[in-house]
Write a structure and sequence with these properties.
Strand 1 and strand 2 form a beta hairpin. The protein has 2 domains: 109 residues; 202 residues, no CATH class. Helices cover 28% and strands 38% of the residues. The strands form 3 sheets. Strands 5, 7, 8, 9, 10, 11, 13, 14, 16, 18, 20 and 22 form a 12-stranded parallel sheet that branches. Strands 6-21-19-17-15-12 form a 6-stranded parallel sheet, with no helix packed on it. Strands 1-2-3-4-23 form a 5-stranded antiparallel sheet. The chain is built from 5 helices and 23 strands. The protein is α/β, with parallel strands linked by helices.
C-alpha cells in the first residue's frame, strides 16, 4: 500500500512537471509570436510612413530625387530611394525595426498644372471697374515673344471684361490717346466681352497649394528673382505687394491683394491679382507683364502711368505650361 502511494505521488509529480513544462513552452511560443507580430507590424508602418513623408517632401521640393538613408522613425529607421520621371516616379522605402525589414514601393505621376483660358492680354472681372490709364502705357493683345518683342501670331483682345456695359465704359470714357494704345484683335481700342466661367478663387487655391515661392506683404526691389526662363516658378503673394527697381519673374504669380509694378520690373507668364473687395493694380515706369494679366475682385481699380507694357505672349504662357510642376500626385500603384 505504501509503495502504491509513493508511485502515485511520483507519477502525479511527473505529470504536473510535464504540464508545467508544456505550459511554459506554449507561453514562450505565444510571447515569441506576439513579439514577431509587433516587430513586423512596426516595420511595415515605418516603411509606409516613409513613403508618405517623402511624398510630402516631393510636394514641397519638386526636384527631389536620389537616395536618403537612415531616417529615424518610431524607434526604427528607413532608407528612401526616389527615381524616375515626373510621369512615373518610383518612391521606395525599406524599413528596419528590431532585425525585421520591410519594403514599400509606390509609383506616382505628378499632375499637370491647371491653366485658365486666356481671353486677352488683360482680363478684368468685377462688378465695379475703374480704369485710370495715363502716360505712354501699352496694352496689346497682339502676340509677343517671352521678352515682349512682337511676333506673328493670332491676336487676342487687348482687354476683355464680363459685361457689355464695362466694355462701353472703357471705349467711351478713356482718353483717345489711351484707347489708341489698347491694341489687338479688331483694332484699337481692342476691347471685348469675354464668355468666361472660370472659378478664379478655386484656381488661385490650386496655385497657392503648388507655390514654389511665398511672399508676405511688402516691397520687393532690385535683385528680386521669381524664377527664370528655364526654371519658372509659381509665386504666391499673401497680401498687397510692390515690385520695384530692376527685378523679374517667370511662371505664374498669384497676388491676394493689391499689386504695384514700378521701375524696370518685368514678369513673363500669367499674373492673377484677386480679392474679396477692392483690388488696386498700379503699373508705372518701364514695368511690364508679358503673357497675360487677370484682375478679379468686387471692385477693380486699374492704374497705369509711364511706359508700362501689358503684352499678350503665347511663348511666355507656353513656357510656364511646359516647365511648371504641380504639387499633387496620382498614386498609380502601391506594393509591399
Amino acid at each position: 500500500m505504501g509503495k502504491a502511494i509513493i508511485i502515485l505521488a511520483v507519477g502525479m509529480s511527473l505529470l504536473i512537471t510535464m504540464l508545467i513544462v508544456n505550459l511554459n513552452a506554449n507561453t514562450n511560443r505565444g510571447v515569441d509570436s506576439a513579439v514577431d507580430s509587433y516587430n513586423s507590424t512596426s516595420a511595415r508602418l515605418i516603411a509606409n510612413s516613409g513613403v508618405e513623408i517623402y511624398l510630402e517632401k516631393l510636394r514641397r521640393n519638386k526636384s527631389l530625387k536620389g537616395t536618403f538613408l537612415n531616417n529615424s522613425l518610431m524607434d526604427g529607421n528607413y532608407d528612401m530611394y526616389i527615381y524616375g520621371e515626373d510621369s512615373l516616379l518610383t518612391i521606395k522605402s525599406v524599413s528596419h525595426f528590431n532585425g525585421v525589414n520591410h519594403s514599400s514601393i509606390a509609383t506616382a505621376k505628378r499632375d499637370q498644372i491647371l491653366f485658365p483660358k486666356i481671353n486677352s492680354s488683360v482680363y478684368v472681372s468685377s462688378n465695379n471697374i475703374s480704369l485710370n490709364l495715363n502716360g505712354n502705357m501699352d496694352i496689346s493683345g497682339n502676340d509677343h515673344d517671352i521678352n515682349g518683342g512682337a511676333v506673328p501670331g493670332t491676336p487676342l483682345p487687348g482687354i476683355s471684361v464680363d459685361q457689355p456695359a464695362d466694355s462701353a465704359h472703357i471705349v467711351n470714357d478713356l482718353k483717345s490717346k489711351i484707347t489708341s494704345a489698347i491694341t489687338g484683335s479688331g483694332g484699337a481700342p481692342s476691347v471685348s466681352v469675354a464668355n468666361d466661367s472660370t472659378d478664379w478663387m478655386g484656381l488661385a487655391e490650386e496655385y497657392i497649394f503648388a507655390a514654389d515661392i511665398t511672399l508676405p506683404s511688402g516691397t520687393y526691389s532690385t535683385g528680386t528673382v521669381l524664377g527664370t526662363a528655364s526654371e519658372p516658378k509659381i509665386t504666391y503673394a499673401s497680401g498687397s505687394v510692390n515690385f520695384a527697381g530692376t527685378a523679374s519673374g517667370y511662371g505664374i504669380m498669384i497676388v491676394n491683394g493689391d499689386l504695384s509694378l514700378a521701375g524696370n520690373f518685368t514678369f513673363h507668364g500669367i499674373v492673377i491679382a484677386y480679392g474679396n473687395s477692392t483690388i488696386t493694380t498700379k503699373t508705372t515706369g518701364n514695368s511690364g507683364i508679358f503673357g497675360a494679366s487677370i484682375f478679379v475682385g468686387q471692385s477693380v481699380d486699374m492704374q497705369a502711368t509711364g511706359n508700362a507694357k501689358l503684352y499678350y505672349s503665347t511663348q511666355a504662357i507656353e513656357n510656364a505650361k511646359t516647365n511648371l510642376k504641380s504639387s499633387r500626385f496620382k498614386i498609380l500603384s502601391w506594393w509591399e
